[in-house]
């Protein structure tokens, strides 16, 4: 029994080393999913802020600055704010935000949100 016990020595360490890369990829995938969700939430918030400004006659030309100001600094750099419909009865603003890349081999693209508001 002692001879067999000596041969099994270190098996647990080898199994652990085999599982570590898989566990790291799963953890990074969870972080990537969280980053994508955060970018989508920020895009929605920025689109609402920009649409509110674009819908008011006094602040109509400040919608881009207002939309970008409502984003976090890390996401504001690659963001775009586009107004697809000028004020008649309503205005439509679309904000696109580049999703931060956590996994180097996975390009997730952008998160876009569109908001339509009635004009004053």
Q: How would you sum up this structure, described in words?
A:
There is one protein chain. The protein has helices at about 1-5, 10-55, 65-70, 75, and strands at about 80-85, 90-100, 110-120. The chain is an alpha+beta fold and about 120 residues long. About 20% of the residues are buried. The chain has a three-stranded antiparallel sheet with strand order 1-2-3. Strand 1 (about 80-85) and strand 2 (about 90-100) form a beta hairpin. It has one domain (about 1-120). The mean pLDDT is about 90. It has four helices and three strands, in the order H-H-H-H-E-E-E. Helix 2 runs antiparallel to helix 3 (about 65-70). It is rod-shaped, with a radius of gyration of 24 Å.
Strand content: 15-25%
User: Measured on Cα atoms, how large is the radius of gyration?
Assistant: 24 Å
Main beta sheet strand tally, sense and closure: 3 strands, antiparallel
Q: Strands of the biggest beta sheet: in what spatial order?
A: 1-2-3
The count of β-strands is 3
Number of domains: 1
Average pLDDT score: 89
Runs in which pLDDT lies below 50 for 5 or more consecutive residues are: none
- Provide a count of the helices: 4
**What structural class do you assign from the helix and strand content?**
alpha+beta
What is the end-to-end distance? 86 Å
